[in-house]
Amino acid sequence: xxxxxxxxxxxxxxxxxxxxxxxxxxxxxxxxxxxxxxxxxxxxxxxxxxxxxxxxxxxxxxxxxxxxxxxxxxxxxxxxxxxxxxxxxxxxxxxxxxxxxxxxxxxxxxxxxxxxxxxxxxxxxxxxxxxxxxxxxxxxxxxxxxxxxxxxxxxxxxxxxxxxxxxxxxxxxxxxxxxxxxxxxxxxxxxxxxxxxxxxxxxxxxxxxxxxxxxxxxxxxxxxxxxxxxxxxxxxxxxxxxxxxxxxxxx
Length: 251
Ligand code: SF4
Ligand code: SF4
Ligand code: FES
Prior knowledge:
- It is built from 7 helices and 11 strands.
- The chain is α+β, with helices and mostly antiparallel strands and about 250 residues long.
- The chain has 2 domains: about 80 residues, Ubiquitin-like (UB roll), CATH 3.10.20.740; about 120 residues, no CATH class.
- Strand 1 and strand 2 form a beta hairpin.
- The mean pLDDT is about 95.
- One iron/sulfur cluster binds next to helix 4.
């Protein structure tokens, strides 16, 4: 175990932990926008900055990806940290003024009106959707496209993603709820090229992807995207027929 102090509290932590993990384990609040305990830290939003003192030198670091060290002194709040966080959230508020998560964070940090040009984006570029798709789902269906002010998350070549299984994990993890997913009935012409039709389809709006939904062989209600069920069946070694029934008809 390593010894460190956070805001003057003497704490112990397992080697390999990050400052954010240790702080949260000890109920010390550090705001975050791109961190999720199930995902590898990425250090994108910089809202989680803290000050560390090592060998007598202090600097600001992102706590979500900074590993704790013996003797480390961490400060999670002071004038400089607060001012930097306010600036970050002000920029995000100008970018995504209608995103509830951003507005709530701005209010929490004492920011009301941003001084910057208002845009009407809804994505804060936290990358959680990209990481959940790659690290947890194993699909790598989406990625970052373009740079600078045009940067966005998208499917490859901004067309239908051949790798998206329609699982909805990206929707679940998105802090600003800006990824659209709909199940629709009567999905004729499912890929908009006349190649395939289906009674039901899952539409992943942001990724320009539509996936046929498998229907229950007893009641005819949609279960899940066929592609998702095929991938799951293969991963866990189930025969695809085991996934022919909806939950209600299984019981
Ligand atoms: S719905 Fe598609 S893009 Fe989203 S996590 Fe699942 S596979 Fe990835
Ligand atoms: S779509 Fe959502 S999860 Fe993905 S980068 Fe944007 S805000 Fe983050
Ligand atoms: S939570 Fe650490 S940089 Fe976003």
